[in-house]
Design brief:
mainly beta
């Protein structure tokens, strides 16, 4: 009996160990499935703020309350199977959006409320997410057009482009979501345009895609109830609208000193963006966040005190020219902000904006000047300092212009003939004060740095002739 008593515990221990091994092996062979996960975004521009608040229910159970346009969630667990999703506006027992969605184990989804403007019905768009990592050194981005900006589908077509016009996605209609793209990690400066690229609808500040990023980015808004914008949903995080950009071209046309003493630093919100920027220097377009006040300071090199201070607030998808002017013959230094018109001219024509930014006399009446052809045909008559004419459409071709005194008796600036090509769009400004800086004409094309036009002769005001 003593031997039996000793053997039984050993046998029971061995059997228990085998049972444990058996259970562990079964767990490894059949791992527990993860619940489906769902992100929710409200991008239905059916009303102006604050009238977009809704309640979202799952199988009649509220899961989100006071959920407004532009809000979203990270992933939340949902039950497997088919479930009823309904969206209610406050005070109504009838859902504005109602539909069934099926969720599978181990899958990720994004549900987006869209529509509700320009005749497009509110609806729920259910997307299946692919969260597998991109290739090393790349990011994965899914781009969609969820902005009901027109009533007809053909009128909603839009392109996603780089700033230089390179097309990323072409002719995308409202409601379309492209498959994931893999793009090399790095900075991207994107915009959404009309299909021909002529009009920018949404202009984004440059963004950085990091190695391994997985994001969805969609156009949203209708342009009336809600402004057009781009909404980004990073994987498993609440999304947000990306900062929008305006395009700013900067030119230094203030003849306050002789070269090289016109050098300045241009600072935006306290940060230098241009240094050693001298008279007649200019830039192409610089992206500046739209819709917020920016402090612009122009500081002479070697000084701590700004010579020009101004506040600007720019509209997204709009381009501007910010020009430093004055500083001679009693005219104050100031910042002139002009809105550029980038709509193309009529076929066979060029578009030219002409301005008088040459402070060559102290009295306004003494600054009057004409823009003429060489045969004295007047293009613009009696233009005072500081005046900017509206855009002119001129037939493409060669033009031999001059700037004269108001009576035409004395030529002040005589550039060599210039050729205007079909589709050209540029500004031409009279510049210089005749003492610190010679009178001249500066051409400023859209998107590109400007340049002084060569002249046959230079007249240094007050009208002292010199042969170059």
């Amino acid at each position: 009996m003593r031997r039996i008593t000793l053997v039984l515990p050993v046998i029971l221990f061995i059997l228990a160990a085998v049972a444990v091994v058996s259970i562990t092996a079964q767990d490894i062979a059949q791992p527990q499935q993860a619940a489906p996960r769902l992100a929710i975004a409200h991008l239905a521009p059916f009303a102006p703020d604050p009238g977009t608040a809704v309640t979202v229910t799952l199988d009649s159970t509220p899961v989100l309350a006071d959920f407004e346009f532009g809000e979203s969630t990270g992933y939340i667990e949902v039950p497997t199977g088919t479930h009823l999703i309904e969206i209610f506006v406050p005070g109504s027992a009838t859902p504005v959006i109602s539909g069934n969605a099926t969720f599978n184990e181990d899958e990720f989804y994004t549900a987006v409320a869209i529509g509700g403007a320009n005749g497009w019905a509110p609806e729920l768009l259910l997307l299946q997410d692919d969260n597998s990592p991109p290739t090393a050194g790349s990011a994965k981005i899914r781009i969609g057009h969820l902005a009901p900006l027109a009533a007809d589908l053909a009128d909603t077509l839009a392109d996603v482009r780089l700033q230089d016009g390179t097309i990323i996605l072409d002719d995308v209609p409202y409601g379309a979501v492209a498959p994931y793209l893999e793009l090399p990690a790095g900075p991207y400066d994107l915009k959404v345009t009309t299909p021909d690229g002529a009009v920018t609808l949404i202009d984004l500040m440059p963004v950085d895609l990091s190695d391994g990023d997985i994001v969805s980015a969609v156009a949203a808004g209708d342009g009336v109830n809600q402004p057009l914008g781009a909404f980004v949903l990073p994987m498993n995080f609440a999304g947000s609208f990306l900062p929008l950009a305006a395009s700013l071209q900067v030119a230094h046309l203030a003849p306050f000193a002789m070269d090289p003493d016109t050098s300045v630093t241009v600072a935006l919100d306290g940060l230098p963006v241009l240094t050693d920027f001298q008279f007649a220097d200019s830039t192409g377009y610089l992206p500046v966040q739209a819709g917020v006040d920016h402090l612009v300071e122009i500081i002479p090199t070697g000084s701590m005190t700004p010579a020009i201070t101004a506040t600007v607030n720019l509209t997204q998808a709009t381009s501007y020219a910010a020009i430093a002017v004055g500083g001679a013959n009693g005219w104050p230094l100031e910042l002139l902000l002009l809105e550029n018109d980038e709509t193309p001219p009529t076929a066979g024509s060029a578009k030219v904006r002409i301005g008088h930014l040459a402070p060559f006399a102290a009295l306004p009446a003494d600054t009057l000047a004409d823009v003429r052809l060489q045969d004295d045909t007047i293009i613009l008559d009696d233009v005072p300092y500081g005046a900017i004419a509206g855009y002119l459409e001129l037939p493409a071709g060669s033009y031999d212009l001059k700037i004269t005194t108001a009576d035409g008796s004395v030529t002040l600036i005589d550039p060599i003939p210039v050729t205007l090509n079909d589709g050209d769009n540029l500004s031409v400004f009279a510049v210089g004060d005749g003492a610190n800086q010679p009178a001249a004409a500066l051409a400023l094309p859209l998107c590109q740095p400007g340049f002084l036009l060569p002249e046959f002769y230079t007249y240094y005001l007050p009208l002292i002739y010199s042969n170059n």
